[in-house]
Amino acid sequence: METRCAWANSSEMMRDYHDKEWCVPSHDDQYLFELLVLEGAQAGLSWSIVLKKRDAYRQAFHHFDLEYCANLTELDMENIRTNTEVVRHPLKIKSVKSNALAIMEIQKEFGSFAEFLWAYVDGSPIVSNWQYDSQIPAETDLSKKVSKDLKKRGFKFVGPVTIYSYLQAIGIVNDHISSCSFHGN
């Protein structure tokens, strides 16, 4: 029988996310962008709310195609903002465009967004050994550093708490508790 981090037991959707995505290392720039957008949208909300809206986000932002998102017009963003299936916060929607543009600049400089992010940990995930979910921090020195660097490059909705959650989501940090069946994955 598989054991999971406690938060993953709230719904089937959360279990699937926990089992298949959370803390799984990714080097795919489009996926990294998708999770950055979703983590930014989550600020102030629960992750389950954002996951429920994920398909609508994929439709609204053409599966997080960087080129498409970088070229969103004011009218495009207003049309997305009126979509009740996404988080309708106007600055969060505008951040999709600015973050896409910032990622494209990073790609020019570093070859990929993944190369830029994974350089913070020399290409190897940080594997934590927490006993309980309650021990997992909201932010760390790493998330503060990445957040600061991203903000300097023009990213929005990338505070240190959001970025720590993001680093977990994309597998740079593996915070599965030690008794979780997915801790070693």
From TrEMBL:
Pfam families recorded: Adenine_glyco (PF03352)
Entries under InterPro entries matching the protein: Adenine_glyco, DNA-3mA_glycosylase, DNA_glycosylase
GO molecular function: DNA-3-methyladenine glycosylase activity
UniProt entry tagged with the keyword Hydrolase: yes
UniProt keywords, alphabetically: Glycosidase, Hydrolase
EC number: 3.2.2.20
Top EC category: hydrolase
PANTHER family (UniProt xref): DNA-3-METHYLADENINE GLYCOSYLASE 1, DNA-3-METHYLADENINE GLYCOSYLASE I
The protein's name in its UniProt record: DNA-3-methyladenine glycosylase I
